[in-house]
Design a protein that fits this description.
By secondary structure, the protein is an alpha/beta fold. The chain contains 13 helices and 13 strands. The strands form 4 sheets. A 7-stranded parallel sheet has the order 5-4-3-6-11-12-13, with helices on both faces. The protein has a two-stranded antiparallel sheet with strand order 1-2. A two-stranded antiparallel ribbon has the order 7-8. It binds nicotinamide-adenine-dinucleotide and sodium ion. Nicotinamide-adenine-dinucleotide binds next to helix 2, strand 4 and strand 11.
C-alpha cells in the first residue's frame, strides 16, 4: 500500500503505521522527564499535530486524564477514514492500558452543543473540574453558533506575494502566489482562526463552574522570522493570530477570579497537515529543518509540546516564562540569529533543480508520511487494507 497525495494533501493513511508513530511519541515523553502538571485536561483539536502531541505529553509524561475534541471520519462506506480518527482510537488504547481516562468527542468544536456535551461529561464522569484547556484547532471554516458560516482565506495584505514553493504530489518546485485578501476576507479569517471561539469555550466552561482553581489555558500560534512575515504574520493568518494574542489577555483577566491564566504559545514551524497547506511556507520549513538538524536543535511536535509543558507551563518553581507581550516563546530556537542567518544563506542557493538537497526535503517528506502512518519501520505495507476489517477493529 502506497501513500496517495493530491497537491499537498494526504488522501490515505495506515493505522498500523499511525500506531507506531504514536508509540514513538509516547516513548519520547516517557524517557524525557516527568511533567508535574494537570491531571484533568481538555484538548480541542486533539487528533493530530500540536494538539495530539500535547495530549500525549500530558497523558504519558504526566499521568493526565484527557478529553479530546476533533473533527474526523472513521472507516465506512465512504472510505478508510482519516488519520486523526485512528490517532484517537489508538491513543485511547494506549491510555487505557495505563489506566488513564481518554474520552473523545468527534464533533464540531465551534458548536455550543459540543461545548455543552463536554461540560455534561466533565460534571458527570470526569470528576467535575478540569485543570487545563489546550486549544489547537486548525480549520478553514467555522459555523458560528448564530448560524453564520465563515471561511478563512490564506492571503496577504497589500500586494500579492509570490515565491518558490513545492508540491508534494509532483515533488516539483513551483512558483506560488498569495493573493491580497479583501477586508471582508480578512475579518472572516479572524472569525475562523482568531481567538473568539477559544474565548467562547472558556466562558461557557467557567459559567458551568468546571474550571479548577489555578486553571490554565493555552492556544497555539505562529509568528516566524521576518523573511516569512509578508506571507504569514502580515497576512490573513497573522491577523487572526494577533487577535488570538489579544484574546489571551482578555481570557487571562476573566480567569483572575479562580487564579487562572491564559497564554498564547508561539510554536515553531513544523510539518503538519495544516502547515503543508500554506503556499510557499513548506519550502521555508525544509530550509529550517536542514539548519536545525545540523545544529542539533531540531524538534517535532512532541519535543515542542513536552518542552512547553515541562519547562514553561508547569516548571518546577511554578513561574511561567513569557516575553514582554506575555507570549510563551517556543520558537526561541527557530528565531536564533545564527539559525536564521544560515536559513537565509540556503535560501539564496535554492533552485528548482536543487531544492531537494539544499533543504531537508527528505526529512519533510518523512515527517509528512509519518503523519499518515507511512514510512514507519516494522510495518508491512505490502497488503491493501480491507475496509470491513478496519470497521471491525477501529470503529
Ligand atoms: P492539525 O491539522 O494537525 O490539527 C488540527 C486539529 O483541529 C485536528 O485535531 C482537527 O481534527 C481539529 N479540527 C479542525 N476543525 C475542527 C472542528 N470544526 N471541530 C473540531 N476539531 C476540528 O494542525 P496543527 O498544525 O497541529 O495546528 C494546530 C494549531 O497550531 C493551529 O492554531 C496552528 O495555527 C498552530 N501552529 C501550527 C504550526 C505549524 O507549523 N504546524 C506552528 C505554530 C502554530
Ligand atoms: Na492539533
Amino acid at each position: 500500500m502506497k501513500p496517495i497525495i493530491q497537491g499537498n494533501v494526504a488522501k490515505n493513511c495506515h493505522p498500523e503505521g499511525l500506531l507506531k508513530a504514536i508509540d514513538k511519541q509516547i516513548a519520547y515523553v516517557e524517557s524525557h522527564g516527568e511533567i508535574y502538571g494537570p491531571k484533568k485536561v481538555l484538548v480541542i483539536g486533539a487528533s493530530s499535530g500540536y494538539g495530539l502531541a500535547s495530549r500525549i505529553a500530558l497523558a504519558f509524561g504526566g499521568g493526565a486524564d484527557t478529553i479530546g475534541v476533533s473533527f474526523e471520519k472513521g472507516p465506512g462506506e465512504k472510505g478508510a477514514g482519516s488519520a486523526g480518527w485512528y490517532n484517537n482510537v489508538l491513543f485511547q488504547r494506549r491510555a487505557s492500558e495505563k489506566g488513564l481516562i481518554a474520552k473523545d468527542f468527534i464533533a464540531d468544536a465551534f458548536s455550543d452543543t459540543t461545548r455543552q456535551n463536554v461540560i455534561d461529561f466533565i460534571q458527570q464522569e470526569f470528576g467535575g473540574k478540569i485543570d487545563l484547556v489546550v486549544y489547537s484547532v486548525a480549520s478553514g471554516i467555522r459555523l458560528h453558533p448564530d448560524g453564520t458560516r465563515y471561511h478563512s482565506t490564506l492571503g496577504v495584505r497589500g500586494q500579492a506575494f509570490s515565491g518558490p514553493g513545492f508540491e508534494l504530489e509532483s515533488q516539483r518546485m513551483v512558483e506560488q502566489t498569495l493573493e491580497p485578501v479583501t477586508e471582508q476576507q480578512l475579518a472572516d479569517t479572524v472569525k475562523v482562526m482568531g481567538g473568539e471561539d477559544w474565548q467562547r469555550w472558556i466562558t461557557m466552561l467557567e459559567q458551568a463552574d468546571v474550571l479548577a482553581a489555578g486553571f490554565k489555558t493555552v492556544a497555539y500560534s505562529y509568528i516566524g522570522p521576518e523573511s516569512t512575515w509578508p506571507l504569514y504574520k502580515e497576512g490573513s493568518l497573522g491577523a487572526a493570530k494577533a487577535h488570538l494574542h489579544n484574546t489571551a489577555d482578555e481570557i487571562n483577566a476573566q480567569l483572575q477570579r479562580i487564579s487562572g491564566n491564559a497564554y498564547a504559545v508561539i510554536c515553531k514551524a513544523l510539518v503538519t497537515k495544516a502547515s503543508a497547506f500554506i503556499p510557499v511556507f513548506p519550502l521555508y520549513i525544509t530550509l529550517l529543518y536542514k539548519v536545525m538538524k545540523q545544529k542539533r536543535l531540531h524538534e517535532t511536535c512532541i519535543e515542542q509540546m513536552h518542552r512547553l509543558m515541562l519547562d514553561h507551563l508547569y516548571p518546577p518553581l511554578g513561574k511561567v516564562t513569557t516575553d514582554a507581550q506575555r507570549l510563551i516563546r517556543m520558537d526561541d530556537y527557530e528565531l536564533r540569529p545564527d539559525v536564521q542567518n544560515a536559513v537565509e544563506l540556503l535560501r539564496r542557493q535554492v533552485t528548482a533543480d536543487n531544492f531537494m538537497v539544499i533543504g531537508d526535503f527528505a526529512g519533510y517528506l518523512q515527517e509528512f508520511h509519518e503523519l499518515n502512518g507511512f514510512g514507519m519501520a516494522g510495518v508491512d505495507y505490502s497488503d491493501e487494507l480491507d475496509i470491513h476489517t478496519l470497521v471491525k477493529e477501529y470503529s
